[in-house]
Amino acid sequence: MALLINKTIQLHDELDRRAETTRKQDIQIMHQKRELRKIKRKKIVAQYKRFEEMEARLKAQEVTTKVQKQISKK
Questions:
Q1: Cα angle 16, 17, 23; round to 5
Q2: Above 80 in pLDDT, residue 47?
Q3: Closest Cα to residue 2, out of 38, 14, 10?
Q4: Number of domains in the chain
Q5: Domain of residue 67, residue span
C-alpha cells in the first residue's frame, strides 16, 4: 500500500513539474509574440513615415514644376 502511495505522489510531482515547465514555455512564447508585434509595429511606422516623406517630395516637385511653367510662359 505504501508503495502505491509513494508511486502516486511521484506521479503527481512529475505532473506538477511538467505543468510548471509548460507554463514557463507558454509565458516565453507570449513574450516572443509580444516582441514580434512590437517589431512589426515599428516596421509599419517606418514604412508610413517613408511614404509621407515621398508624398511631400512629390508635392514639392509638382509645385516647382508649376512655378517653372509659369515662369517660362512669361
A1: 90
A2: yes
A3: 10
A4: 1
A5: 1-74
